[in-house]
Amino acid sequence: MSRHVSPTTDNSHSSQLELAFEDNRLAAQLYGDFDQHLALIEQRMIVQATPRGNHVMLKGPASAVDQARRVLESLYGQLEEGSAIDVAMVDAVIRMIQTEDSQLTLPTLEKKGKVRMAQIATRKATIVARTPAQDAYMRAMDRAELVFGVGPAGTGKTYLAVAHAASLLERGDINRIILSRPAVEAGERLGFLPGDMKDKVDPYLRPLYDALYDMMRPEHVERCITSGIIEVAPLAFMRGRTLANAVVILDEAQNTTSMQMKMFLTRLGENSKMIVTGDPTQVDLPRGEKSGLIEAVKLLDGVEGVHISRFNDKDVVRHALVGRIVRAYEADTAHKLAAQNAGHDRT
User: Buried b / exposed e across 117-129, counting CB within 10 Å, b at 16+?
Assistant: First the structure.
């Protein structure tokens, strides 16, 4: 791919840049159907991207033009390597480029601006990081023995944890996947629900199952559950166990008590990983009960072998409206906290 720089406009803070892509077929894929990929770049990066055959003219603020160049070059590089791109991928690369290297918990941006996003591959699917926080989280799961994924709904915390576990199981790096989640909504009446223990807790573990079916063939998932390779382990039944050669996932961990969290974390055995996910803003415990997740994140921050990945509304990868909903609730919480603090100050 060659690149030609046009003269800067009379505004010293703006510039224009012409990119030329050698392969016309790949250039068409780069632009997207009806140039939708370029339209997204224009919208998100505040530049003009005008295609002419296999050339693209970029105009706008100098920094935005440079970022748009890096986005297009990174996407074109993926096409050259045989990877397909879609709107979600374009959005992911834009997010990665717009986040400076120094803001990332773990290094993800290579020299010369080429983006190499973390990936999780199984026989059925390959998952690519779509935000810098996801990238750091996925890399941390490779490196750390205990990983916390903390943040709002829709950021991929649980989905990526299950994908990572499925990948390790397929590679033979572990022997089991253990899924656990506190059934707070059912309280002490869980035993009165119909069916065996799996039937009783299935409604609470459905998001974990959904992710498993995305990563593995349905018949393989069913065989693994039947044989115990994938195990549903209600949190209350984890006491006294030592979990070796496994990935153990605790979802909705904000609804664990302090004692439950300590009990769970101390189950870690040889050649095992634990991934704990939750949203500290959605605690359903009885009033006055301390969340084990909130406490654990404070106590274990900085402990060797522990990594804490924090997500926010900018990392939401569901419908764009979900991110706006999260921001609205966070703003309301901040307003109420400020009012509460102001009231304390007056007293």
Answer: bbebebeeeebbb
Q: pLDDT tens digits, residue range 183-222?
A: 655 444 445 555 665 666 666 677 788 889 989 999 999 9
Neighbours of 76 (CB within 10 A): 20
Do β-strands 273-278 and 306-310 pair in parallel, antiparallel, or remain unpaired?
A: unpaired
Show the tokens assigned to 60: 């706008």
Burial of 321 (0-12, 13-18, 19+ CB in 10 A): exposed
Q: Provide the token pair at 272.
A: 């095992």
Q: What is the pLDDT of residues 276-295, one digit of tens each?
A: 999 998 888 888 889 999 99
Predicted confidence at residue 58, as pLDDT, reads: 93
Query: Do residues 130 and 120 lie in contact, with contact meaning Cβ atoms separated by under 8 Å?
Result: no
Sequence-distant (≥ 6) Cβ neighbours of residue 334 within 8 angstroms:
none
Residue 322, pLDDT score: 64
Model pTM score: 0.71
Longest dimension (CA), the chain: 75
251-265 pLDDT, tens digit each: 999 999 999 999 999
How would you write the chain as a 3-class SS string? CEEEECCCCCCCCEEEEEEECCCHHHHHHHHCHHHHHHHHHHHHHCCEEEEECCEEEEEEEHHHHHHHHHHHHHHHHHHHCCCCCCHHHHHHHHHHHHCCHHHCCCCCECHHHCECCCEEECCCCEEECCCHHHHHHHHHHHHCCEEEEECCCCCCHHHHHHHHHHHHHHHCCCCEEEEECCCHHHHHHHHHCCCCHHHHHHHHHHHHHHHHHHHCCHHHHHHHHHHCCEEECCHHHCCCCCECCEEEEECCHHHCEHHHHHHHHCCECCCCEEEEEECCCCCCCCCCCCEHHHHHHHHHCCCCCEEEEECCHHHCCCCHHHHHHHHHHHHHHHHHHHHHHHHHHHC
Contacts of 43 (CB under 8 A, 6+ apart): none
